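Re: the 450-residue chain
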Amino acid sequence: MGRALAGRAALLANERWLDLNALFSAGPDSPYYNEKDKVSIFYAESWALTHMLALSEEYMPGFSKFVAALAGGRPAADCLQSIYGKNVKQVTGDLHSYIAQSSLRAAVYDIKLNQADLEPEVSEPSELEVDLALADLLASQTKTQAEAAQRLTRLAAEHPESADVQESLGYLAWSQGKRETAKLYLQHAFEEGSKNPEMLKDYAQILHEAGAPTEQILPVLRKAVELAPGDQEAWLNLGGTLTSARQYAAGLEALGHIKTVSAEQAYALFSMKAYCLVQLKSFLPAREMGEKAKQYAKTTEQQLEASAFLSHLDTFERQSSAPPPVAKGVPTTQPAPQQPAGDKPTIMQRTGKHELARDEPSARWADNLQNVEAMVTFYDCSSKPQRLRMKVDSKEMVLALGNAKEIVVRNMNDGHLDLQCGAQRPFRVGVFYVPSEGATVDGVIRELVF
């Protein structure tokens, strides 16, 4: 797949290219769809862009996310920026360089076709299938989505047992930003026995983002891997959900189905394997997986997590009776030991000058410890307990400092951290905290990692 097409390559070499924004905005009523002198360059450039996004070494890892974001109704330029971190002008430059290469990558698939594949049975679609296909086409265009909704609502009333109709209603609601409505429709599709593993993965993701219990998510993902046993992403999601549910052996077994992994997903796979292994007290394999996770860490937050995991593992290996370390988003059932002499972390305590200085450790890990990477923006020293305000992505969090002697501060070279009351020049820090059920703070800080 992806063999270079000489005719299109020649056309791109000799004709003036479209601006990518014009390419993205072209619809069925556009001259680029209907006028002969414009159609050729439109299709040639569309082929080139798709080839680069799907097969180039730089863009291929994010291609599936890009397609999913487009299907969700987001503008193509926004998708490029959020997924690849590049604007339209930068992507245009990459595309020109890509097509100017002396050769292009292609993908080869070893597929064995049986007689049924070579001579498929042709059958007439049912009336429902025809109506559903027309409704889906209408749903793909913003200006005809209202008509699509009317058609799908009528089909749902006529065919309440159809998982496909519920699925189409769900994706239509999702593209309109109605996530709660989408969740209900996809739930109906699942209950009616949907055979679409991609829909099941999307439904599981919506459930996860809505904070649904793992008992509700697991059957959805198990059905997805049953329908598509070769789907690596489905196994990764199932393994992660089982790990979050503290079903470590089952989580490790699910992750074992993943035979190849992209560089984009490698950190998630190896870090989850490491955590499951350490919970099962297989420390040597856990270290091997932890080192691989650190090798594939791409963000500051991932690097902090991997380093903290290996650091804690050093301690636990020295103390055979110690419980395992805490990994991001996965609670532990046992308290961690005191830090041994000679391996003292920095401990945060408040002095008269609002200085956080080195002291003896007295912190113990909580059962439900979580961690985030944040930008600290404000130190509220007038409240009791004192609080730090911070940005996590686009969300603001407020975390209490609690007992200063129970807060571990790591990687501070000079052994102390000065904070003045009030607004801070934003600084990045990894934060381990215990979630709080109170309305005033999101949790209580246990560790800061710089």
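The beta strands are 346-348, 355-356, 370-380, 387-392, 395-400, 407-410, 417-418, 422-435, 443-449.
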